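Hi, here's the filled form for the chain we discussed.

Project: internal
Contact: R.S.
Residues: 123
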Amino acid sequence: QVQLAESGGGLVQAGGSLRLSCAASGRTFSSYTMGWFRQAPGKEREFVAAISWSGGSTYYADSVKGRFTISRDNAKNTVYLQMLSLKPEDTAVYYCAATHLSIYSNQLYYNNWGQGTQVTVSS
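And the returned structure, exactly as it came back:
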């Protein structure tokens, strides 16, 4: 098991940027696939981005491709989500999650979740 804690959310105007961080506990962080998911009010939680244990492979939802970048620093036990050109529709609670499986966009296979961080994009 790994414990996850997100940070970096906040209020930003449309077109702005934010960088989310997710700090993980434990000594096996580098063995986990890491993902970011989000849940907007009244909507189901959805996949945003994921990164393989080595950082060599990344995956994105079509809605964020070209605007968001996921990265990780295994020495710091941290995964990041750089968000550029934010839109009001990006408003949501953002969660990071971890799985030992090489399955990236299906949240059912992630068994470690953080508490989430709120991102609000004003128009």
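Let me know if anything looks off before we file it.
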